[in-house]
Write a structure and sequence with these properties.
By secondary structure, the protein is mostly helical. The protein contains two helices and no strands. The chain has helices spanning 2-26, 46-74.
Amino acid sequence: MIQDTIENRLSRLEEQVSVLMSARTNLDEPGPDEWEQTVGMFRGDPIVGEMIEGARRIREEDRRRAREAPERDLE
């Protein structure tokens, strides 16, 4: 009795996984205009703002070091 129930459940699960996998395969290729859906999606998000600000500080520090590097080589 229990074995029959397990086999039925397993069969249903295998069928569901098959359906999900086939649906997933159809989503692998983005549409030509799909990128437009993501533009601006993080506007106003404070966490993303912090990330952008942190990246800006890192870039500015890298630029400063790059400008100072030739001066150090001359010493």
